[in-house]
Amino acid sequence: MNKRQVIILWVIAIALGAAVTAVKVSQNQSTRSATKRSQGQTLFESFPANDAASIEIQGAAGSVTLAKKDAKWVVAQRDGYPANNTFVNDFIRTLGELKITLGLEAGPSFAPRFGMDEAATKPADRGLTATFKDAAGKEIAKVSLGKNIESSSAPSPMGGGSAVGRYLRNHADDSGFYAVSEMFPSVSDDAKRWLDSGFINPEKIKSITLSQPGKAETDWKLTRDDENAEFKLEGATAAEVLDTSVTSPLKSLFSYARFEDVVPANKVAERAAADGKRTAVIETVEGFTYTLQITPTKPGTAAPATPDAEPAATDNFLVTVEVAAEIPKERKKAEGEKPEDAKAKDDAFAERQKVLTEKLAKEKALAGITFEVARTTVDPLLKDRAALITKATPPPPAEGAPTSGVQQLPGGMIARPPVSATTPPISVPPADQTEEKK
Questions:
Q1: For the chain, how big is the Rg over CA atoms in Å?
Q2: Which of 18, 68, 103, 339 has the smallest number of Cβ neighbours within 10 A?
């Protein structure tokens, strides 16, 4: 083999090596995502969670702004009412830790395909856009939540598909869209969905007073000696007997109650009906006094379900509450109390006193706020005096007294014997035999 042939063989070998390398590089590039972030990486390289001072969430139905005030989140559209801090902080934390399931190379113009069309009026097409800003109002992050990702497996027994994730877009990343396994069920553009749900909770109710509709005069007052006793109607006549099926639910009135919404101050007048306002005063064994102003809402003033829908009918009520308390500073000791018993009771009293002090501070903070509550929440309270009374059962007849075939049933009902529609047959006695002989 001469020198020229050797050179030719080396050239061919080098060319083949370069071709193989090119093929391998091409194969690697074809299997690698062209998006900036890839599977297993976080959506944000570094999410500025600590710098977030406000979050604006926009959707098809409107928008809500969450703002940080004194290290806690509030809802701007509800006059700065406290937000559910757990929901807000979970949203921020989840975005910071969120890992990508799949990167999808596509430009911003493809946003409508992923349910992120900012011009759409339907929630499913519009999605949600969350804009994060710092204390100076500068945008520090923006993310869109698009369509849910449906499972390709069999449909759910409850109907429809089964969602396994959601499409997201980081607006600072133009390389594509991302699929994630998180669906963000708590994120909404509805302001009331972000409100802290804490409300009044009267415990150990001692008395309840309710005014007449539209008047200051008292309609009725119920009292009881202690938390285990039955209610008594103040000023009841001999004929007025309380219906315990009506008054018993009042012992736990507003326990675990929830409100529907907080009404901004500039919206109260257009929501409140002109007539029917009532005042309720609730006093507890432990010295709390709740004064509630309860007003019916105008028909047709509820928020529409969608932007294009008509205002919904409502029979909710507007409620304001003032809370005051005289928390006992010392425990009343029983005569002859043993020292070891006194110590345990003193400790329990001190612990309860701390709980009541914290409870008072939380509930006093609700003053001046108008809450919208469902009828079912206040319906047990809004009873007229007559609705509290049951008719007394007539006394049974005296022993030996004729009953005339009338039977008294439980509850005072009367049962009478049936009356036959036909005349019963008359039996004719046989003729006297002596008369026949004549």
A1: 38
A2: 339
**How many structural domains are present in the chain?**
2
Q: Pick the closest to residue 289 from 298, 279, 281 (CA basis).
A: 281
Does residue 382 sit within a domain? Answer: yes
> What percent of the chain shows pLDDT beyond 90?
68
Are the C-beta atoms of 147 and 115 separated by less than 8 Å? yes
Whole-number Å distance between alpha carbons of 391 and 242: 9
Q: What angle do CA 164, 167, 169 make, to 5 degrees?
A: 155
The residue segments making up the domain with residue 111 are 49-153+161-194
Write the single-letter amino acid at 386: A
Residue 438: inside a domain: no
pLDDT (0 to 100) of residue 237: 92
28 domain-assigned: no
| Same domain assignment for residues 230 and 357 | yes
Over residues 115-168, the pLDDT tens digits come to 999 999 999 999 999 999 999 999 999 999 999 998 865 444 444 557 899 999
141 and 254 part of one domain: no
Q: What is the pLDDT of residue 331?
A: 86
